[in-house]
Amino acid sequence: MIVLPVARADAQYAGLLAQTLANVVSFIDAALREQNEQTLKALVNAVVPKAPPEPTLLREAAMLARSRKAVLEGADWLTAAKLAELVGLSATNPSTQPNKWKRQRQIFAIHHNGVDYFPGYGLDPEADWRPRKALKSVLEVCGDEKDGWGLAYWFLSANSFLGGRRPQDVLAIQPEQVIAAASDEMEGVVHA
Known about the structure:
Elements: H1 11-47, H2 55-73, E1 77-78, H3 80-87, H4 96-103, E2 110-112, E3 115-119, E4 123-124, E5 130-131, H5 133-142, H6 148-156, H7 167-170, H8 175-191
Antiparallel strand pairs: 1-3, 2-3, 4-5
């Protein structure tokens, strides 16, 4: 309800004023509805791809999702904070040392939902949970050919060079074999 004091008190003027206000209100209402519809269309267009994705792209996305899920479920993954707590590092900036190890290629991480996760199998409990020395050798062999996820897939996968065993399971007990398997893997990449 809108109340307007009017200086003129004749009925015709009040009727015209009421009609004008009704027109303005309906115009504002229509403009707001149109603006909401345009906003909704813009949001839908931003979320929906411009063209339907190719079936192969959908299959590839499903395979990638399954692979990443397998990696996350296939080992213990530690945030920098958990790793710092385990190792007994400073709690004020827990990512400092793990990130330093990562830069020095002593360990790797996978980046998932904005967080780096470090592999538990890459840590040596007998060396106060520091990165395994053999892991550094594997990372040096792989160089820049594999990112964190690529390394995680390789460590998780059964490896024929290791008799069908997974590198992450063999790293602690036969580190030289894992380094040799990584070399074999990278020679295959070079010759491919």
